[in-house]
Each structure stands twice: as structure tokens, then as C-alpha cells.
Amino acid sequence: MRLPSNLRMKLACDFARVKTQGSSQAGKFLVLGALRVEALEEFQFGLITGGKLGNAVVRNRIRRLLREIVRAHRAEIAPGWQMVIIARWRAPQATLAELENDWLRLARRMNLLTQKLPAPPAP
User: Fold this and answer.
1) What DSSP letter does each residue of 17-33 carry, written as one string?
2) Cα 107 from Cα 73, distance rounded (Å)
């Protein structure tokens, strides 16, 4: 299942605004920058994979993994946030589980995730 295109940040000015006005946290494999934007009904995200990570095949693989992480946790991400996920130089050696754990830790630290309700008891 694809993510809708309205969730993607496309303009350079959006990336720059998150960098200048937002806050960021660094993890082992990722840097997560976020900015609260009240006008957004959902969240928006952008990915940055620099040339130092490797060739195009490596960078595209990392982008696919990061999009999968966002897609898997889409329901948990609080609305009204713009976030930029920057892959660090260690990211190409990481597995999907390691990237996901790093992203979840950073997202929780920045309060990007909504509180999950406890599961109802089984009858």
C-alpha cells in the first residue's frame, strides 16, 4: 500500500523551515527534524539521503526502508507535524529493524507519536 503524495514534503522551503524553526534529535542511524504546523490535517515527511551514503542503489534502498517505516507507523504519528528524516553514514549497514527502532526512539523523544490506547480485554 502506497503512501499518499500529500504526506510528502516536496518544496525546498518546507525543508528549510523545518531546519531553521524546528528541533532535531540525532540517533545512531538517523537524524529526525520536526516542526509543529497547526494548519496540517495530517503529518508531512521528507527524506534526505546524501551522496556520502553510497551510490544511487544504496540511497534508494535506504529511502524505501524509511518510507516503509513511516507507512507502518502512519496511524501512530500525530497530525500537524512536518518531519525530515536524514540518513546518517551508518544507515546503509543497518537492517530495517535497526532503522525502525532508531526512528521510533527519536519520534517518542520528540513527542511525534500519539499515545496508544491499551488493547481491550479478550472476552
Assistant:
1) HHHHHSEEEE-SSEEEE
2) 11
